[in-house]
Design goal:
The chain is mainly β and about 375 residues long. The chain is built from three helices and 28 strands. The protein has two domains: about 180 residues, Pectate Lyase C-like; about 170 residues, 3 Solenoid (Pectate Lyase C-like).
Length: about 375
């Protein structure tokens, strides 16, 4: 099933590139173009236009761009889009529709100027902060070539979507490293099917990917720096608490708290199954190269993993890299019996000297983390 899904997505990505190359924004008429700083014409544009151009636009304070567009529409973003300051919860851009093409014209930039909101607290208090972009109920669509800078909080959320490919997106929140950026998750996926994220570059201060529920998810050829790693979770206490068929391939995670992470919330229930991390490189990790834990809480891990999550058919293959000396190479904290059918092949995380006590590792996995300085399978 995984191989068939991968081959399908390869073909789908080829089709994407063909569509992107053939698309042009130069033919979009003025009555289908949003520019300036007024949203007054947006409803008319989304109701009547199959091709929409948004360029050199300033979103008014406390407002957002709501793209409830026609099926089959193409939306081009060109030049710079900026946002007025306002302390509020919600998304600066929302998109709904089917068979959509959301295209960033070369040179485009969404400059969110997130430092106006950053206070080191993210979503845990302080200023109310908007998130950047949400796709809701989007099907059979592509998002390609967006350049996003300094998001106030979370960047791109995918909710209740199917067969969507996101490619060649750059998220650059590096200024938040020194100015209080927090909870700047790059990609969040929930309750969705057949989502592919590929050839993206992320600099942020939280998860590069946070997959909290979904099926047939592919995350490949991506570069993640500065955040919390490629994560499943946190999962538990959501409406849907299942991840099935998640494939990570050819990704790099550097200068981050974690490399690969699976985190289930304490005292919750759910299922994580059929997960593969393949050809993943980690570097300069500060917490753990690989961490799988069932005791997660936002305020701090409990140390007591919950027995309510089943985690099965987990594969790590050709996973290499380094962590800092104060870090741990790997940490696994699970209740006994919740994990089954794990495979570790050619896994080597080195450099960490932190002593760890792992629990709940399947006996037939052939894996042990008793040696905290070298993880060798």
């Amino acid at each position: 099933m995984k191989i068939l899904l991968f081959l399908f997505l390869v073909n789908w990505n080829f089709l994407i590139q063909t569509l992107v190359v053939s698309a042009t924004f130069e033919t979009v008429p003025p009555n289908c173009t949003l520019t300036g700083n007024s949203l007054a014409n947006l409803t008319s544009i989304t109701s009547n236009c199959q091709e929409i151009l948004i360029r050199n636009f300033e979103v008014p304070s406390g407002k957002n761009i709501q793209l409830n567009v026609q099926d089959g529409a193409t939306v081009f973003f060109a030049d710079k889009v900026t946002f007025g300051y306002g302390e509020w919860e919600g998304y600066l851009i929302t998109i709904r529709g089917n068979n959509l093409k959301i295209i960033g014209v070369p040179g485009n930039l969404f400059d969110c100027n997130g430092s106006r909101w950053w206070d080191g607290l993210g979503g845990n208090g302080g200023k109310a902060k908007p998130k950047f972009l949400r796709l809701t109920g989007v099907t059979n669509s592509i998002v390609n070539g967006l350049n996003i800078k300094n998001t106030p909080k979370h960047c791109l959320a995918i909710k209740s979507c199917k067969n969507v490919t996101i490619s060649n997106v750059t998220i650059d929140d590096r200024e938040g490293d020194f100015n209080g950026g927090h909870n700047t998750d790059a990609f969040g996926i929930s309750e969705s099917d057949e989502i592919t994220i590929t050839n993206c570059v992320v600099y942020n201060q939280d998860d590069c990917l946070a997959l909290t529920s979904g099926t047939n998810t592919v995350f490949k050829h991506n570069y993640c720096s500065g955040g919390h790693g490629i994560s499943i979770g946190s999962i538990g206490n959501h409406r849907v608490n299942e991840v099935d068929n998640f494939y990570v391939k050819n990704c790099t995670v550097v200068n981050s708290a974690n490399g690969i992470r699976i985190k289930t919330n304490f005292n919750t229930t759910g299922v994580i199954k059929n997960v593969t991390y393949e050809d993943v490189t980690v570097g300069n990790i500060t917490n753990y190269g690989v961490v799988i834990r069932g005791d997660y809480l936002n305020g701090g891990a409990t140390g007591t993993p919950t027995p309510g999550f089943k985690i099965s058919n987990i594969t790590l293959r050709n996973v290499h890299g380094t962590v800092q000396p104060t870090a741990g190479n790997v940490l696994i904290i699970l209740s006994e019996g919740v994990a089954s059918n794990w495979t570790f092949e050619d896994v080597n995380i080195v450099g960490g000297l932190k002593k760890v006590n792992c629990t709940g590792i399947p006996e037939d996995s052939g894996f042990s983390c008793n040696n905290p300085s070298v993880l060798t399978i």
